[in-house]
Specification:
InterPro entries: ADH_Fe/GldA, ADH_Fe_C, Alcohol_dehydrogenase_Fe. Belongs to the iron-containing alcohol dehydrogenase family. One of its GO terms (molecular function) is metal ion binding. The protein is of the alpha/beta class. About 50% of the residues lie in helices and about 10% in strands. It has two domains: about 170 residues, Rossmann fold (3-Layer(aba) Sandwich), CATH 3.40.50.1970; about 190 residues, Dehydroquinate synthase-like - alpha domain (Dehydroquinate synthase-like, alpha domain). It has a six-stranded parallel β-sheet with strand order 1-8-5-4-2-3, with helices on both faces. The protein has a two-stranded antiparallel sheet with strand order 6-7.
Length: about 375
């Protein structure tokens, strides 16, 4: 039982569900009195489906421009470029339609617009490293809406992961108003999402719940909500695996991602799975949605003595009461057909030292429930996951 702490509530107006994305987005634009809506969208959804065209038609004259060339790992350079395009278009609302990269890009674009950032170096005056607890950004005049097509769950977070291509480091930028003003859930939009991305992003969403549950900074409310999210995600993802066109299974999966992200909404710090995952993605190019299945089982074993009660509850939520949580999670991701070891995603022991040197300074690695005393501890964890 949590003995002391603080529960935070996010700067988000609403989550909209049960309506087509095009109708819901137009309703939100009207509610917010937005006259010039700038879309940041998945290229696949824009060029291979009619989903984005439905949105443009619904917005009608409110739509001013669409950008669809999103980098896989959101970059400073692209954020500055897209912010210039949005400012030139006179955008008063930015909307992301797609996966985590689209949503992170929208978050950082509104900050680049606010501060007139025009290139990679324009972000340098805004330090966001360990020890920075107050955002250096001004409150943005332009807000954004997220319409997710994956289960990543980053839309429920007031932070963005942005890669500095000069150093190949993924950095965290945050401000309470980087949280989307609204999130729209439409399972029909997700049927175009590749299965590996859908399942992998679902494990990333579970990661949000697991790290919040295991965090010493969690709260009684966040614990119960994220456990419900993990259970709901497990059911929805398994049903989607069996029947990919089952919209109710996809809707259930979206609800699970929403619940599992409750710790993010409450600003419970994540742990080493997120921190090391940021290094694997930003520096070594591992797809974001493969980071959790290759790291989490070993991290659960590393953290076990510090999080035994949380792990007992986690195993039950994963449908395996009495089983070791690490084994239950590994078995779940195996059934989904996801990689289970670092070697499966091209990360060998020759990279462990570099990963540990970067990760040891990451704010989430430093917030891990079992502290890492040195880089050698991180290397030992990576060897467990090899």
């Amino acid at each position: 039982m949590r003995k002391a702490g603080v529960h935070n509530f996010p700067a988000i107006d609403r989550v909209v569900y049960g309506k087509a994305a095009s109708d819901a987005l137009n309703d939100e634009a009207v509610r917010l009195d937005a006259k010039r809506v700038f879309l940041i969208v998945s290229r696949t959804l824009n060029t291979k489906t009619d989903e984005i065209e439905k949105i443009r038609r619904a917005l009608d004259e409110r739509h001013v421009a669409t950008f669809d060339g999103i980098a896989e790992h959101t970059t400073r350079k692209q954020a500055a470029e897209v912010a210039r395009q949005a400012k030139d278009a006179g955008a008063d609302l930015v909307v992301a339609v797609g996966g985590g990269s689209a949503i992170d890009l929208a978050k950082i674009v509104i900050m680049a617009m606010e501060h007139d950032i025009r290139d990679e170096a324009g972000f340098d005056p805004f330090p966001m490293g360990p020890g920075v607890t107050v955002s250096p950004f001004r409150s943005p005049k332009v807000r954004q809406i997220a319409v997710p097509s994956t289960l990543n769950g980053g839309e429920y977070n007031a932070a963005a992961l942005v890669t500095d291509e000069r150093s190949r480091l993924k950095q965290i930028f945050f401000h309470s108003l980087m949280m989307p003003v609204a999130i729209i859930l439409d399972p029909a939009l997700t049927v175009h999402t590749p299965s590996k991305l859908w399942m992998g992003s679902g494990t990333r969403s579970m990661d949000h719940g697991i790290e919040a549950l295991c965090s010493p900074a969690g709260t009684p409310l966040s614990d119960e909500v994220v456990l419900a999210g993990i259970r709901t995600l497990r059911e929805g993802m398994q049903r989607t695996l069996q029947q990919p066109d089952d919209l109710e299974a996809r809707r259930l999966s979206q609800y699970g991602a929403w619940l599992a992200a409750f710790g993010l909404q409450a600003r419970v710090p994540m742990g080493a799975s997120h921190g090391i995952g940021h290094v694997l993605g930003g520096t070594f190019g591992v797809p974001h949605y493969y980071c959790t299945p290759v790291i989490m089982p070993s991290l659960l074993r590393y953290n076990k003595a510090f999080t035994e009660d949380a792990q007992t509850r986690l195993a039950a939520a994963l449908g395996e009461p009495g089983m070791e949580a690490a084994a239950a999670f590994a078995e779940f991701t195996r059934r989904l057909g996801l990689p289970g070891r670092l070697a499966d995603v091209g990360i060998g022991e020759d990279k462990f030292e570099q990963i540990s040197k970067i990760a040891i300074n990451h704010r989430f690695v430093q917030a891990n429930p079992r502290p890492f005393k040195s880089e050698a501890d991180i290397v030992d964890l990576l060897r467990m996951a090899a």
